[in-house]
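Notes, p. 3: input format for complexes.
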Amino acid sequence: MAAERPDITILGGGPVGLAAALALHPIANIRVLESGPAKPEPSADDALDPRVYALSPASRALLESLGAWRHMRKERMAPVAAMHVFGDAAPGELMLDARQPLAWIAEHGELVAALTLAVERAGIAVRHGVKAAGWDAAADGAESALKLQDGSVLRQSLMIGADGAQSWLRTAAGLPVTHKAYDSLGLVANFTCEYSHQGIARQWFKGDSVLAWLPLPGRTISIVWSVSEAEGQRLLALSAEGLAAEVAAAGGRALGAFSLLSKVAAFPLRQTLAPISVAQGLVLLGDAAHAIHPLAGQGVNLGFGDVAVLRDTLSARGPLQRVGALTLLRRHERARREDVAAMAVLTDRLKALFEANARPLPALRNAGMAWLNRRNELKHAIIRRAMG
Ligand SMILES: Cc1cc2nc3c(=O)[nH]c(=O)nc-3n(C[C@H](O)[C@H](O)[C@H](O)COP(=O)(O)OP(=O)(O)OC[C@H]3O[C@@H](n4cnc5c(N)ncnc54)[C@H](O)[C@@H]3O)c2cc1C
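Output follows (388 residues plus flavin-adenine dinucleotide):
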């Protein structure tokens, strides 16, 4: 007979691990193990986090249902009223808008702080500074064992790997992974701008780079600039004024002059996919299962989609079915496959399409964008899909 409240251990206390803890708390005893230190409580004068997320309406609905959304400081978030996408030549231009916000731009630190507060209020145990050292998979129906560096051993019916793109658990469990390096860097930073952004997210596909300007409260924006390694190093070496001038110019000075507000961070861009994301008593969620190119800004939304589906799958299990049963976890994996594959292919192909210089591709992609811009029904179908 399955235990009334099984034990679930979550490795990784990032946005996806914390959301999973809240989502599964009603049906299981949860512990979260995070390798990093506990973060101090947010305060009014916290510096802006250069890493931001475009949270979709589906992610917002999940965060509301988990009791985390109400802890997010509204003065630190901005709704996206519309999205203006530019190709690398005329007539490539596309405007996407809807009656309600397409997304909310929120800082990574704010999101994690809100989830942490909700986790604390729910009385879920989170241990920081934990180092995993060994993994014994669950034999059929039994508990798995996770060995920690302090010598202790934790046993659980279900082990969740939410430990990010370099997932230790994925490797320890011997799950296969495919990597695609893009030889590019993603630069993230925040700026104040001269003119109001009017809640419009702007994105330029420039052939050798993709630049996104994401609205933050007031006259503030966050950027994600995907560039070649060499170009990334050049941009990182610029002075604050030099970088602000280049970012403003790359967007045709659509928002006037910029001034740098935050640190500049850079991440190597690669696609990492785990074609098999479950095993007996184990499931990978979020970036541990699928890290994609940030050009569609969908990484965290995909991870929250995993959490919502796992919650529904485990909650609907039969009275005798264990939370770690492979048949159940495979059902979860099947339910996620289409969304994950669609997003991985979309980001990968978009990147390739806008990098291709062979004629007639540049003319075709820009004409295609202009064509789509005139098809309101198709645009709304795309918007509905992106909103989850
Ligand atoms: C440049 C860049 C820009 C991005 N922009 C966007 C965007 O605009 N929108 C978007 O949705 N996504 C974006 N992403 C992707 C986004 O950051 C990830 O999809 C998201 O953070 C995934 O959340 P996660 O919880 O799965 O993983 P992570 O956020 O990586 O969290 C993993 C957690 O696990 C912990 N951990 C790691 N190893 C261990 C271990 N062995 N034991 C215990 N704990 C461990 C880590 O400390 C961390 O807290 C961007 C990514 C990059 C690189």
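The pocket of flavin-adenine dinucleotide is lined by residues 11-17, 33-36, 53-54, 130, 132, 162-164, 168, 186, 188, 224, 267, 286-287, 294, 297-301, 303 (CB under 6 Å).
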